[in-house]
Amino acid sequence: MNESRLRLRQALDCGRPLVAPFVYDGLTASLARTAGFEAVYMTGFGTAAARGYPDLGLLTMSEMVDNVRVVARASRLPVICDADTGYGNPINVWRTVQEYEDAGAAALHLEDQVWPKRCGFMAGKQVVPLETMVPKIRAACDARRDPNLVIIARTDALAPHGWTEAQRRARAYRAAGADVIFVDGIVTLDDLHQYSETLGDLPLLYNGQLLTIPELMKLRFSLIIHISTLFTGYVWLRDAYAELKRTGTIADAPGFEILPEITDTLGASEILDRAEKYKE
Asked: Which residues of the chain have pLDDT under 70?
């Protein structure tokens, strides 16, 4: 039994919303854990960015699965994962689900975009027909071996087709067996409240930062993935590199005194203790 999947499933079953910050590598996953979060979200945008690519469907399933394994090991928390479109038809989805499961995912979401997909907040998204997506959701649910693995169905239909079509797809995906529904591309407060109110009878995931976490907790969301960590990290690093190039230093930058904290966050103490145990 996978304990992290059980913890996530129990949280969902008891109706307690979970907040999962965006992470994309072992360091960000470790920082989220030490900050006290109960779950993390392995972002496809961030996973691609860490490899020097935009989120335009350029990463393969195996590259994403490799990162699931890294994030699950480093975070030791339930990992909610981006699985893009499932990388093909229902048979491909079947393999994708089992590869993500073997890598330690607690949940994964599949989206109904045309491949190659693009970030949910980018213009020009297209979606496949509803009749193409429903069998992929059914295949995903059938493929899992651990019943606690959470299958999340994401629709990107809001931007190209509007709320009527997004709601139609959300309910169809839930009927096909999805545990949680995810309407992506929520960019206004009106859309956010419509999402919560019109689909609030379903388990919902929200991706964004339009309200604070306490405010979002009052709405009808089961999972909240928070993108601000990704944006903030990018801005801080961008500005630090620019300042170093421009001035020759980074004002107020920490010195080597921060090194023990970094190594401890990454588990150095535990590893060194283990080494002591096996000294000859």
From this structure: 1
Measure the CA–CA gap between 90 and 133, rounded to whole angstroms: 9
CA dihedral angle for residue 207, residue 51, residue 55, residue 214, rounded to 10 degrees: 10
Answer for the pair 98, 241: CB distance below 8 angstroms, yes or no. no
Concatenate the DSSP letters of all residues of 171-196 into one string: HHHHHTT-SEEEE----SHHHHHHHH
Question: Which pLDDT score is estimated for 1?
Answer: 67
Q: What residues have CB less than 8 Å from 163, skipping those under 6 apart?
A: 191, 194, 198
| % helix, strand, coil for the chain, step of 5 | 50, 15, 35
pTM of the full structure: 0.94
Phi, psi of 154 (to 5 degrees): -105, 135
Tokens standing for residue 249: 């230093």
Question: Alpha-carbon distance 253 to 157, whole Å?
Answer: 44
Q: What is the pLDDT of residues 38-61, one digit of tens each?
A: 999 999 999 999 999 999 999 999
Phi, psi (deg, nearest 5) at residue 263: -65, -35
Domains for the chain: give ranges and CATH numbers. 3-236 (3.20.20.60)
The answer to whether 105 and 60 are in contact (CB under 8 A) is no
